[in-house]
Design brief:
The chain is mostly beta strands. The protein contains no helices and 7 strands. The chain has one domain.
Length: 67
């Protein structure tokens, strides 16, 4: 949890392996993150939009967005 000068808090949630799985902002909106083997595979924004990441075999990354 991190707070600003107005005592508003942002809450960071990590799983048992140490990966960041959620951020809840000062307005109560949550952004969530998913992983495979500690590599981020998607981010879901508070509006439900999803950004997916695919790591290729030679280290390339394909990014797709769904709104």
């Amino acid at each position: 949890t991190a707070s600003d000068g107005k005592k508003r808090s942002v809450i960071y949630t990590v799983d048992s392996t140490g990966d960041l799985v959620a951020i809840k902002d000062t307005l109560g909106r949550t952004t969530s993150f998913t992983y495979t083997g500690h590599k981020m595979t998607s981010v879901t924004n508070p509006g439900g939009g999803v950004t997916r990441f695919e790591i290729g075999t030679i280290g390339t990354t394909k990014i797709t967005q769904e709104n």
